[in-house]
Amino acid sequence: MEQLLAQIESIQKEIAATVAKTTAEVEAYRIKYLGTKGLVKQIMGEMKNVPVEQKKEFGQILNAFKIVAEEKLEVLLAALGEQDENNATIDTTLPGDPISVGTRHPLNLVRNQMVSIFKRLGFAVAEGPEVEDDWHNFGAMNLPADHPARDMQDTFYVQEATENNSAWLLRTHTSSVQARVMETQKPPIRVICPGRVYRNETISARAHCFFHQVEGLYIDENVSFADLKQTLYFFVQEMFGKEVKVRFRPSYFPFTEPSAEMDISCQICAGKGCNICKHTGWVEILGSGMVHPNVLKNFGIDPEKYTGFAFGMGVERITQLKYQVNDLRLYSQNDLRFLQQFKSV
Questions:
Q1: What is the CATH number of the domain that holds 162?
Q2: Is 310 exposed, middle or buried (0-12, 13-18, 19+ CB in 10 A)?
Q3: How open is the CA angle 284-149-134, to the nearest 5 degrees?
Q4: pLDDT band at 90, cuts 50/70/90?
Q5: Same-domain pairing of 312 and 249
Q6: Which of these, 20, 54, 22, 61, lies nearest to 40 by C-alpha position?
Q7: Which of 97, 113, 256, 303 has the highest CB neighbour number within 10 Å of its CB?
Q8: What pTM was estimated for this model as a whole?
Q9: CA-atom Rg of the chain in angstroms
Q10: What is the Cα–Cα distance from 134 to 176, expressed in whole angstroms?
């Protein structure tokens, strides 16, 4: 016991006399005295050899010894910090480096602009779940059970249908939000439905397995196809300018009749032809049509009294044309060199 106390006293004198002028010297002190194999650990290990009746007294001595070593380390670190500050070559009176300010994602910028345009026409915003049941995604939209869009090739199913439960899936369009609106509201209905959708497609410059849509629905008395066309004419002119060229082509969608796709002149090549417009000078931006009577009936809306139109477009495609982005994959790669281009937008 007396020999151990003499050893502790000797080490404490060494600690008191220690001087460190560099980071390496401070680290050497820490390792020698407070490291895993340091002197403090070694002395603490002698506790097992102390007689039981002296353990309490000796324990207090050891704790005080450890505190002395730790306090000395703090003193050395503080002195080293003051030394570094005195020797610093940096002028601390100069203003700091500017902090880089973030920006909204280009898809969010364009989606917000699209929503703003339709709000000026009286459309309200409606949202719904991304994991949807088969009825709201397909059945309510007049898609028969054998429609190709239900295949695994196009749809990400979360849960297969059972005898007592519907199939669940990642929604393939925001038409499911329209279904939920018609389920809870009565005409007149005028909503747009922005959101993310999912389809099992090959990723390329023109397509992705997830993307964003803005769909619109207007149901009231005496709504005509002319109302649909004028609404969409207004949208593309507000989005792309008065000089944009527009054309409608007959098409087919299960939930609208008649149906049409809308093309605009390619904003990337100015109609001269490129890989985005497949060298035609035209790019399809949306599908549209008059709401099918069966869809209205599914929600208890009288098709003899009410008519309506619906449309849907991809936010990625609109952004691609507006800012002349030639690859849809850029939106999800989080490349700051790409995203920082939109700071001033």
A1: 3.30.930.10
A2: buried
A3: 125
A4: low
A5: yes
A6: 61
A7: 256
A8: 0.69
A9: 36
A10: 9
pLDDT classification of 86: cutoffs 50, 70, 90: low
What is the tens place of the pLDDT at every residue in 211-228? 999 999 999 999 999 999
Same domain, 126 and 65: no
Into how many domains does the chain fold?
A: 2
Phi-psi group of 31: left, alpha or beta (phi > 0 → left; psi -120 to 50 → alpha; rest → beta): alpha
**Does residue 171 belong to any structural domain of this protein?**
yes
Q: Which domain holds residue 77?
A: 2-86
Instruction: Give the pLDDT score at 290.
Output: 97
Per the CB < 8 A criterion, the answer to whether 140 and 219 are in contact is: no
* Helices vs strands, H then E, count in the chain: 11, 10
Q: How far apart are alpha carbons 267 and 236 in whole angstroms?
A: 12
Residue with tokens 């680290």: 27
Phi/psi for 217 (5° steps) reads -145, 130
pLDDT in tens, 137-177: 999 999 888 877 777 668 899 988 888 888 899 999 999 99
The terminus-to-terminus CA distance of the chain in angstroms comes to 78
Angle between helices 106-119 and 225-240 (to 10 degrees): 130
